[in-house]
Each structure stands twice: as structure tokens, then as C-alpha cells.
Amino acid sequence: MNTWKDTLKNTPLSQIMKTAYVKHIIIPAFNIPYLPMVEPVIQALEDTECFALLEVARPDINRFEAKSFAAVKAEFDRFKDLAVTRMHQDHVPVIDEDGKAVDWKALISEALNLNYDSVMIDGSRLPIAENIAVTREVVNMAHPRGVQVEAELGAVLGHESGPLPPYDEIFASGKGFTSPDDAERFVRETGVDWLSVAIGNIHGAISGSAKDQKKVEARLNIDHLRKLADRTGIPLVLHGGSGVRKEYVLQAIHNGITKINVGTEIRQAYEKALRETNNVRETQGILKAKVRNILNEYYEMSHSARTLGESIEKEL
Ligand code: 13P
Question: In a mutational test of the pocket of ligand 1, which residue from 203, 267, 291 has the highest number of ligand atoms less than 8 Å from its CB?
Fold first, then answer.
């Protein structure tokens, strides 16, 4: 009998993330912009015995073909294996990438009613006091239902439709990076579980022709990350995981990043394979190989689910 699998299946995500945080085990979160991506991503996790989240955000639904939070959750429930995965609602913005106000409460409630394991409220375009107030409200909605909450502080750019300043300028100036003082206050006053930070990471583009372009190779300011980790004491999240240079990702894992969001890299791989094969089954096979490769070669996280399960068993 595989006891680590039974243990992990019966462990809430809150505990899995805590153990991952303490042991510096990375938990990738893969965005799902097309429903047929769910099955091969979960199979890749099973094949490699790695633990990761599947996640869906508004742009996956509005700009691509994820259809709805309910549709992705239904597909997840068809193929899920709770020893290797859970379902996360990514980026519910209070103000979206086009500057429009969003009915965030309705979207968070929808995910809670669909039994998502975690949700993300993104008040990062608000002044900090308002971001804190909104995040605290979501924590109060989610925690009584055992659901984890992620929030964002700082500016992770890239989803906006207008042109970005040159990447090297953003990185060198540190403009928009999460402030360690603000981060400490934010965590203390909100009770949030995980915090998305800006340390040089940017999102891959999602609009116009830019969505098909190769993403810039982002770097990370690891000293800045260390300061944020010291001041917050909770799992930190790296958005814009696609295309970050590997040496930075591996350092980030050892300095406080517990969750890393990956969207563009697997979306573009799926779209390219579908264009070339015109066959969903074949495309799924190609995506599965791609995800296995990301897990094994890029994150070097082989058997992370087994390690997590065995660690949690020892703690029990
Ligand atoms: P990338 O598309 O750059 O991988 O970013 C994904 C992300 O952060 C989703 O929240």
C-alpha cells in the first residue's frame, strides 16, 4: 500500500502548503486556459509523483477557452487525484488589467460554492489600506470553510494591454517591488495565508498579438525576496513563472517562494501543438511531456508529492 498517497489525499491544502514552506518544496500552479489541458497536467503529476495546483483566472475564461470556474472544476473533478493536486482560483482582481471595477465578492463566492481549495483576491491596484480591507473580508469568507487565501502586494505587471517599460528598466529600478514594511503590516492585519510578491517577475502577455510572443526572460532580486520572507513568515508566491531563468527559480525556492504560477509556457505549448497536429488527443500527449519536463528538468522537484506525504506522516 502507498501510505504517502493516502496521507496526502486526506491532508488539507493548508497543511500541505505549511510543510512545503518549511521544507522548501516548490508547489507549481498551472493555469488552465483550455479544458483539455486538465487531464494531461494531472497525468504528468501522477507519472512524476509531484504535487501541484491547477488554477484558473478570469483571463483564462474571458480571453481563452476555460469557459467558467464551474467548467474547469467539473473537468478537475473528472480526473482529480488528491494525492498530487488541488484546485485554486487565481487572480480575482478588485480593479482589473483594463482598469475596470470587478464584482470580486461574487467571483470569490462562486469558487467557494464550487469547493475550490483556495482562492486569490488581488487588490494590488488599490492603496494598501483598501487592499488590506478587501483581503481581510475574503479571509473572513474563506477561512470558516477551510479555504486558503492568497493576496497580492506590489505590481506584477504584464497583463495590461498597453506597452510595458523595458524589462531591464523595471528590474534595475525595483519600481513596483513589494515593500518589506508593507508586507509585514499586510500579513499581520489581514491573516492571509500566502502572499504574491513582486521581485522582478512579470506576467506573460494575454492580449493581442503579444500573447503569442516569446516571453521576456525575467530575473529575480533574491536579496529583496529574502527580506520579504524574513518579515512575513508565510509562503510567498511567484507569479509570472514562465520563462524565469532557472538559476533564479531554484534560488527563489530556497529563499521563501513556495508557490509558482505557470501560465504562458504551457498555454503556448498547447496552442502550438494543436495548430501543428490539429488533434486534441495528440496535443494532450505533447502537453503531458512538456509538464513532466518542467517538473523534472526545470524545477528539479522529482517525487515532491511522495516527500510531502512522508514528511506529513512523520509530523502526525
Ligand atoms: P505566466 O503566464 O507568465 O507564466 O504567469 C502566470 C501567472 O502568474 C498566473 O497568475
Answer: 203
